[in-house]
Predict the 3D structure of the following.
Amino acid sequence: MTTRSAFAIMIAAGVLAAAASPASAGPSQSRQAPATTQAPAPVPVPGTGDPSPLSAAQIQRWFEAFTVLQAQDALRLSEGQYGRFVTRFKALQDIRRTHQQQRTKMLAELRKMTNPDASADDAQIAERLKALQAHDDVAARALRGAYDGVDETLDLRQQARFRIFEDRMEQQKLELLMRARQNARAAGRRGRGSS
């Protein structure tokens, strides 16, 4: 087994451990549980012994690493392609994550400004909307450049498989993030119940 394969298995185990937590059980399972069932134990961060549950940000980072490792098989990359692809794919992930974090902050500001109790006037809101649009435009150009960089390392069929692969991995990530939030809520309820 190669080091890369072993690392992929370790990351997959960590991501799947978070997903397999009882807190992420579907509605059919939760209906069967008795009303007195305690909240599930938190999923530890694999390899650390830390009993705190994985956060959404940790899941995101683990999943990004897992995605990079899965890409070689999914895209049928040669050994020669893999190094160049990984460098550019990680740059794409970084740009996407940074943009999303900044956009989330900007939307939170807009949410505060548009609350019924807020004292922001229309000019301030218009200014923040303009800043959000400018940020989105810059991010779109940066993402397009990053995608072009990835595409330069792939042949035509691999480029098509990459789009399909990204879509599939995004769906899996969203499911894991939803489960991480459920774990965090369960841990919060457990903490309040023990105080």
